[in-house]
Amino acid sequence: MQVHAREDLLGEEQFELLTSLDLGDLVGIDGTAFVTKRGELSLAATGWTLLAKSLRPPPDKHHGLADIETRYRHRELDLIANAEARELFMLRSRVIALVRRWLDDRGFIEVETPVLQPIYGGALARPFVTHHNQLDRDFFLRIATELYLKRLIVGGLEKVYELGKDFRNEGVSHKHNPEFTMIEWYEAYADYEKVMDDLETLVSWLADEVGYDGELDFSAPWPRIPLAEVIEQQTGIDVLAHRDRDDLFAQMRDKGFMEVDAGDSWPQLVDDLLSKHVEPKLKNPTFIIDYPVELSPFAKAHRAKEGIVERFECFAAGMEFSNAFTELNDPDVQRERFAAQTRLAAEGDEETQPHDEDFLQALEYGMPPTGGIGIGIDRLVMLLSGAHAIREVVLFPAMRD
User: What is the C-alpha separation between 77 and 396, in angstroms, rounded?
Assistant: First the structure.
């Protein structure tokens, strides 16, 4: 609102101070509202107070703040200068609120599980390590909430979700940030087919609610393609016909994939084919389903396909934004899967799932058939906003010195 200040009302000293303020200073004005002859809503000042002094010049609102480094390191300046940045983070807040509402309306309850965990798990990733002084032991910042949430399913909380921060000590890229926001939900007596239907419904509804008008088509149904099939389509390699690590490595070299790391395990080689030669080509939302068991230590064996588990990942705009299973609920098979992960770790794979005896004991009490999913909130906001880098949608992303 425009301020109408007169020296005869404020006094010479107060009028001079008011008219010598710097751009960015915050003031409180006492006065009476009125409309000028030109129709401008104004405030006739009878007094004023300096609320905060701006010691640095604010960025130019007309031209905006264009320097990417400054925008990420000093988000407050980005928000001052760029209306688009404010709109983006208000969109993010709305998406989170809508996801919560969608789950609450369907009978899910929100819970909180430990961020500091004695054993990390629920994903294949390297953790951050910290030390608990009072207990004199190391803890890990969680890489996922999965194992604790499934223990709640065992306890009879049959529809649970958690929305919070996870931490994975891995590379930074346009779609990776070591600290990220994830929502996971688990539903007893559901499977991955049910979860696929729910994800389609949720994201299509979100796109409508936020008024999405970009290039992606979120309308259901989304394609559902087996992993081995889509890899063979794009690379000419049938990974299921080459279940031996050295055999698959040789096939990849024969096909000209020379950037392959000779130290990679079989699951890492398959993931390399998927992430480098399939994922970038998936524009509209697409389910890649039915993964080899070696890639999925927590997924239940497929009811009709040997060596395959009931798992899907969903991709859009060339990136994965969700991962889901029919959850493995046989403790004996889970123990064997942990042992296989331990062998891969001994072979040099740093992104394996450590043995978790507490989780195994929970399964031994009996976990009902369950469908579970994790959705990256940051990437979901990227899709709904058209942002091209994850750091655009994180208020204060991790940066180098």
Answer: 12
Model-level pTM greater than 0.85? yes
- Report the C-alpha gap between 389 and 176 in whole angstroms: 9
Q: Label residue 380 by pLDDT band (50, 70, 90).
A: very high
CATH superfamily of 2-57: Nucleic acid-binding proteins (2.40.50.140)
pLDDT mean across residues, the chain: 94
CA nearest to 218, candidates 209, 226, 227: 209
Check if the beta carbon of residue 231 is closer than 8 Å to that of residue 273.
yes
* Fold match, 2-57 / 83-223+284-392: no
Long-range Cβ pairs for the range 50-59 (8 Å, 24+) = 50/17, 50/21, 50/25, 50/26, 51/26, 51/27, 52/25, 52/26, 53/22, 53/25, 54/22, 54/23, 54/24, 54/25, 54/26, 56/24, 57/22, 57/23, 57/24, 58/23, 58/24
Please identify which residue in the block is written with the tokens 């880098």. Answer: 389
Rounded Cα–Cα distance for residues 119 and 142 (Å): 8
Instruction: Name the more confident of 336 and 261.
Output: 336
Instruction: Sort strands 137-141 and 116-117 into parallel, antiparallel or unpaired.
Output: antiparallel
Instruction: Give the contacts of 184 (CB within 8 A, at least 6 positions apart).
Output: 144, 145, 146, 149, 161, 162, 372, 373, 374, 375
Residue with tokens 């980005």: 78
Any idea which architecture 83-223+284-392 has in CATH?
2-Layer Sandwich (3.30)
Cα–Cα distance between 6 and 3 in angstroms, integer?
Answer: 10
Can you give the residue ranges of every domain in the chain?
2-57, 83-223+284-392
CA 289 to chain centre: 20
The 8 Å CB, 24+ separation contacts for 56-61 are 56/24, 57/22, 57/23, 57/24, 58/23, 58/24
Q: What sign does the dihedral 242-247-249-253 (CA atoms) show?
A: negative
> Shortest CA distance to 286 belongs to which of 268, 274, 294, 301?
274
